[in-house]
Amino acid sequence: MPRELRQSRIQKIWIPSKDDKPAVPRRPTGGPHLSNPPTVIVMVGLPARGKTYISKKLTRYFNWIGMPTKVFNVGEYRREAVKNYSSYDFFKADNENAVKIRQQCALAALRDVKSYLTEEGGQVAVFDATNTTRARRDMILDFGSENHFKVFFIESVCDDPSVIATNIMEVKVSCPDYQDCNKTDAMEDFQKRIECYKAHYQPLDPDQYDRNLSFIKVIDVGRRFLVNRIQDHIQSKIVYYLMNIHVQPRAIYICRHGESVYNLQGRLGGDSGLSPRGKKFAGALSRFVEEQSLTDLKVWTSQMCCSIQTAESLGVPYEQWKPLNEIDAGVCEELTYDEVKEKHPEEFALRDQDKYYYRYPAGESYQDLVQRVEPVIMELERQENVLVICHQAVMRCLLAYFLDKSAEEMPYLKCPLHTVLKLTPMAYGCKVESISLNVEGVNTHRDRPEEMKKFPGTLIRRNSVTPFTSPEPNIKKPRIDDLDEPLQELPPSPATPPTLCSAPHLSLALTGQNLKRRCNDCHEILQHCK
Amino acid sequence: MRDQPTEAPQQKRNRVRPLAEATMSLMGYGPSNSASPRELTQNPLKKIWMPLPCKNGLPDKHISQRKVCMTNCPTLIVTVGLPARGKTYISKKLTRYLNWIGVPTREFNVGQYRRECVKIYKSFEFFRPDNEEGLKIRQQCASAALNDVRQYLTDEGGQVAVFDATNTTRERRETITAFTEQNGFKVFFVESVCEDPKVIAENIVQVKLGSPDYTNCNTEEAMEDFKKRIECYQNSYEPLDEVLDRHLSYIKIIDVGRRYLVNQVQDHIQSRIVYYLMNIHITPRSIYLCRHGESDLNVKGCIGGDSGLSPRGREFAKQLGQFIESQQISDLKVWTSQMKRTIQTAEAVSVPYEQWKALNEIDAGVCEEMMYEEIQQHYPLEFALRDQDKYRYRYPKGESYEDLVQRLEPVIMELERQENVLVICHQAVMRCLLAYFLDKTAEELPYLKCPLHTVLKLTPVAYGCKVESIFLNVDAVNTHRDRPENVEVSRMAEEALLTVPAHQ
């Protein structure tokens, strides 16, 4: 007997109503869960080959598309275990004590991987370490098969000394290991550290030893790729993503269309044209773009009148993307908030409860929107300088990707009219500058009502993992207590300031290393626009 | 809705498959140093905003005459590999995919040129490296094909050409590269490498023995001859080389997708090609497509909406459950849309299923839940426009078939990855999916017959797809409305409603 269906109120999803339990929140694939067994992504490569960069970026992407993912950086476990880094001696293969510590750190990280994937609702864990030996990789493979995790290797191979040097300068010399060290010394020590690994490095061998493994080899920062035995949807997505990202310096400019007639009237959605102030903004945007004197700037708009009108005034070619259209408010299209409240009081309240998951009747949710703009993100990754002229909800989705925001924060990100955000990738994150073009526009931001702020959305809360923000490393007390040798033999650690290495909590705007000052600036800028 | 005079849709009826721009379209160049931005007007058919006539008084080009943005420079895809390595399979499949997503693509198979030229194939001797006459003919055929490539990409609106030949020598590939440079095309090589004799033999049996070359030949002789033909190439074969060809853009497919080597991907289209080639496989399987059971709104003759199943629709769901059971399909995946009627149908099949929002029915915008009679009454202009160019027509605040294809692309990609799948979807969605598998044009697609309570079983064979249509013997209303004779805006209501199927 087929079960009766009823529609969940927030996500508008039809579910069998046999039991009275509310729907399990769906993963925002907008569709099937195509990744049944969890996946462990294992990085492989010498130090300074961009493993951490890839790990963090991939993790951010996966969380954004709704696949709970977390990085486990063995280096962080090591720094937690051995507070005071003295020199590359620690990485010498014949430093037995250190080898043991490193082994224990790897095991501790794997234990955390296991609990993340089996108990905490994680789908993908990224095991970020050098993993340069077969012995180590075999150990991880055993761990994977014991726990029924799929294992996928990402090896980064690069022999271009200038790329390696750049990488060391960008992210290594500023790492806590070298805080009391000048740059030249740090550089030299790090080079020696690489040498320590080189002697025992066994690259993945597609012809013999590793022919049955699933992996991608990224060669010379994406000039070439070798892909072996892709097993499933996730692995295929990883490969596609890695093939599209690049590290060329560039800037992405995101703004909304100029103020529209409906904005002025306080109406949602619709397809109205620009108000006089909106037209003024379009002119100001044109001057701004000219001043930035960008090479090969691509301009993208949605297929809505106000964003195209804004682009028209730039006098440059532009491309229209339907996926950049504003969120479809369904039955609430063209209504004011007051009218929504009056005509659909229940819907109005539901949206405040869980704005990310909430789907307008006959319309879309933010969750839907993320799926819709995913191809735009992929193409943004491929491109260099781009100006995206879009809409409030769409801009929030895009911004959440670049700034690694959670499902809870995303629908409340401040994206005021007549303000351009300039995003510049740096180190492991993205610098944000907010530039108001000094043309007044109405405020279209509606905050979450105070009484709702007290608790997270029910669906978000029920999700054991809040999707969409890459979790911070929560290395509990390093689990080195089961080491045979006490740690005292190592130099005692002085009171160290909190690490700067990968501190996404430092600023909402910027995740990077040693960029604290700038990141405070950005924070202020963001504060400013609130 | 705007009451504007309508322009006749421009349907290109040339040999180019007129699938229009993909997700996005390159808009015209605004006047540089623009003093005032151009006014916009909405194209009534596609509901796309575009600038009004330019300064010179001439109207802007129709949008479909502009190039697809991400491929503004045409691309030549060149296959590389010994005979029977699946080059033609890849070429045809890729061509079908690219056409479907809206990138006009055509394949040029040099073997066919050769068969045109030398009507009667005698034996492998023709392919021997020391057969000078054979060599000359083959070279001429290759140049003839390249000439046609040039014409297709420069004059006929083609975006991608697939040059399907062995191209096993570096010399030949250099000639092609020079050709593309001369013409301003990008070139991307697709090499298929396979040493597994079983795979090769299978390929020969599947597609070579049926080739016109071997019509008057028994199987063993043909097999024998073809193997010798492969040997003719083997000696001079220079595979793409990591060092020597490091500057080229290519993908090397090793052992039918066990491994890939990807070098210097240059742009969007190449990246899509790579992604696609990595997702396809040749494991035998079947894809079952059907619509939900008859819904309450179907019975009333209304489009769209989110109603539940009618009693007959429920009966179909039950029958579908039995049918699926009788097929004894291993590891069957069941996919539905997020609409009530497909989920109700899947519930009766009693296997786990997955919901895709991307499989939802076309959004009819302001026409949702209307009968055709009502659409004609309230929006006669829209109704006529839709009949004029059903593929490109976008409902006000809704979608077009063209939009739908973009929305369904990830579903197709995942269908390619999967093995046995049953997709329970909707009329317009099913037409789009079917058009992909059966390589239908944009003109045919919106009129494909996908009746209720009928399962289509698709089984990949050789270069195509076998279709079996299985009616599950549960009556249902007909929801197929053919294109009426008269599609003019000025037509009478009766003429517009002539083809509306019977309903309550």
From TrEMBL, chain A:
The active site is at H257, E326. Gene3D superfamilies: P-loop containing nucleotide triphosphate hydrolases (3.40.50.300), Phosphoglycerate mutase-like (3.40.50.1240). Substrate binds at R256, H257, G258, E259, S260, V261, Y262, N263. GO terms for molecular function: ATP binding; hydrolase activity; kinase activity. The keyword Phosphoprotein applies. SMART domains: PGAM. This is 6-phosphofructo-2-kinase domain-containing protein.
UniProtKB/TrEMBL annotation, chain B:
Gene3D superfamilies: P-loop containing nucleotide triphosphate hydrolases, Phosphoglycerate mutase-like. This is 6-phosphofructo-2-kinase domain-containing protein. GO terms for molecular function: ATP binding; hydrolase activity; kinase activity. SUPFAM superfamilies: P-loop containing nucleoside triphosphate hydrolases, Phosphoglycerate mutase-like. Keywords: ATP-binding, Hydrolase, Kinase, Multifunctional enzyme, Nucleotide-binding, Phosphoprotein, Transferase. InterPro entries: 6Pfruct_kin, 6Phosfructo_kin, His_Pase_superF_clade-1, His_PPase_superfam, P-loop_NTPase, PG/BPGM_mutase_AS. The active site is at H292 (tele-phosphohistidine intermediate), E361 (proton donor/acceptor). Residues 70-284 form the 6-phosphofructo-2-kinase domain. In the C-terminal section; belongs to the phosphoglycerate mutase family. It comes from the Eukaryota. It comes from Umbra pygmaea. Substrate binds at R291, H292, G293, E294, S295, D296, L297, N298, R341. Signal peptide: none annotated. Coiled coil: none annotated.
